[in-house]
Amino acid sequence: MVYHVGKVEVPALQGVDMAVPRGSFVSIMGPSGSGKSTLLHLLGGLAHPTSGKVIVDGMEISAAGDRERTAVRRTKIGFVFQRFNLLPTLTVRGNLEIARQVGAGEPLPRQRVTELLDLVGLPHKAEMKPLDLSGGEQQRVAIARALVNQPAIVLADEPTGNLDSRNSSLILDLFRDLNRRLGQTVVMITHNPEAANVTDRIFEMRDGLMYAEHAPGAPVARP
Q1: Cα dist. 30→10, 27, 158 in Å?
Q2: How many domains does the chain have?
Q3: Tens digit of pLDDT for each residue in 86-99?
Q4: Is residue 141 part of a domain?
């Protein structure tokens, strides 16, 4: 993956090769500027590679047009970001309902709202506004929003980056539980080794290169 800044080519990823098994929970670690967020954007169809292939759920999205990639994002992938990106003028219910409307073009049944909020441990928060919730609660609403269209894959970019250690632990436990209960594939970007250690597999990046893949706690030879 190469970005162009004027006439200058800036490589963001260089020959990255990785495979994520269906139903697994993996993390991608690396310092700022290592290319991990660029990689997540490629996996989610938010960016187009300048070379190579990106295959999601059997479909080569790197060869697909904008409309096809948009359809994949709406039906197969849920996104969770470091910033919660909730609409402050809407209630929790409203944030979930608009996500359904944008993603599937149809209303979200009230029972589905209840199921989603039960799933993330917020059964009585449906009529509250985001700014009336704690940071950890807002992130749990963001996770519920990512699950609105029952995606096969959840991509999370530094989902605990704005949270204290207690709420970070709660969010990581929630991802682990959702992965096990729903069988969703979860790919999480993080710079925190403690967060990465809750996942099944850790991919480590540096300077646009994937230099290690290992189980949590395994020793790694540094480049």
Answers
A1: 18, 10, 11
A2: 1
A3: 999 999 999 999 99
A4: no
